[in-house]
TrEMBL record:
It holds the Pfam family PBP_like_2. InterPro entries: ABC_phos-bd_PstS (IPR005673), PBP_domain (IPR024370), Phosphate-bind_PstS (IPR050962). The keyword Transport applies. Belongs to the PstS family. Residues 40-335 form the PBP domain. This is Phosphate-binding protein. Coiled coil: none annotated. It comes from Nocardioides panacihumi. Residues 1-24 form the signal peptide. Keywords: Phosphate transport, Signal, Transport. Gene3D superfamilies: Periplasmic binding protein-like II. PANTHER family: PHOSPHATE-BINDING PROTEIN PSTS (PTHR42996).
Length: 368
């Protein structure tokens, strides 16, 4: 049976949805203070949102930035990457977090939001996507991309299917029905997960990558927390979510086949995956976006990961907004900012050269 969750109304700034953090109440360690001291004296408030995978990282970033900027208030609403980008295009958000880069088909909307200029897009967060499941008595499984693709496409229906059993000879698998869970909202996590299925699935996944779940069937849940909740509430469920949301649960996780080995999700593996990828051809000089290679055979790589972006404009109509967006972005890509995210969200710090390139782009932000 197909179960579809009712998507909640999304009103930017609504109290029921916004995870607001008043930076005036935040403290920080000496590293955070020193990293943000250059932005001290900033005043104002702004709204942002998007990627729910970034939620825990955003909590750490706002706290760290607030240590040196007590007169700044930033709210971040984890409504999903697609809604975050849409609210950025409309002007409701001054910046957005997105687990996938702006699509070419949406670039005109981004430029319009930025007064005709190319938007800023820089990676700020690298994290594994866990393939998590709820199967009593089983906490680890080995699966290749073809098998995972067939599970989510609905052609593998029970946990003791030969395709699963052959890769897990030491595991006693029940005949329990498999219940796949996917995101109901437009999601960069979905985009990255389906990109892996498409690239590495050996033809078993028939559609291109997409931020919107592209096949019928399964259970739909909103946001990262919704997927994790559905996995925990069901039996025989399997889904995908940012590692930071899975590690605190009792859900089982999948090690995916890379070359001839099976690789568990890890921050280091995700970082190695970005290193094995290339910068997108034809991007503007305000954009540092990646074409992800999901078919690496080096077992140091965990290929199911997301490189999540900070999306902003190069200019804003008032200096206070420009200075806050610029200062916050600079803190995020700084060493203390990346360390704070790694501690709170179990993400991989940006490679030094990538962080330097991102900072150089963020340095361009200014008032009109």
């Amino acid at each position: 049976m197909t179960i579809t969750s009712i998507r909640r109304a999304l009103v930017p700034g609504a109290a029921a949805l916004t995870l607001a953090l008043s930076l005036a109440a935040c403290g920080g360690n000496s590293d955070s203070n020193s990293a943000s001291s250059s932005a001290s004296g900033l005043k104002g408030s702004l709204a942002a949102g998007g990627s729910s995978a970034q939620e825990k990282a955003q909590e750490a970033w706002r706290a760290g930035f607030g240590a040196g900027n007590p007169d700044v208030t930033i709210t971040y609403d984890p409504v999903g990457s697609g809604t975050g980008r849409d609210n950025f295009y409309s002007g409701a958000y001054k910046f957005a977090g997105s687990d996938s880069a702006i699509a070419d088909t949406d670039m005109s909307k981004a430029k319009q939001a930025c007064g005709g200029s190319d938007p800023i897009e820089v990676p700020v967060f690298i994290s594994p996507i866990d393939i998590a499941f709820n199967l009593p008595g089983v906490d680890k499984l080995n699966l290749d991309a073809t098998t995972v693709a067939k599970i989510f496409a609905g052609s593998i229906k029970t946990w003791n299917d030969p395709a699963i059993a052959q890769q897990n000879t030491d595991v006693k698998l029940p005949s329990t029905a498999i219940s796949p869970v996917h995101r109901s909202d437009s999601s960069g996590t979905t985009d990255n997960f389906t990109d892996w299925l498409h690239q590495a699935g050996g033809g078993a996944w028939k559609t291109e990558h997409s931020s919107d779940w592209p096949v019928q069937g399964g259970e739909a849940a909103e946001g990262t927390s919704g997927v994790v909740g559905a996995l925990q509430d069901g039996q025989g469920t399997i889904g995908y979510a940012d590692d930071s949301a899975v590690t605190s649960t009792k859900l089982g996780t999948v090690s995916v086949k890379v070359g001839s080995e099976y690789v568990a999700p890890s921050a280091d593996g995700a970082a190695a995956g970005l290193a094995a990828s290339t910068v997108k051809d034809g991007a503007a000089d305000t954009q540092l976006v990646y074409t992800i290679n999901r078919t690496a055979t080096d077992p140091k790589v965990y290929p199911v990961f997301l490189a999540s972006y900070f999306i902003a404009c190069p200019t804003y109509s008032d200096k206070a907004t420009a200075d806050i967006v610029k200062g916050f972005g600079q803190y995020i890509v700084s060493a203390p900012g990346q360390q704070a995210a790694a501690a709170n969200a179990k993400s991989a710090p940006l490679p030094t050269d990538v962080a330097a390139k991102a900072k150089a782009i963020l340095d361009k932000i200014a008032a009109k």
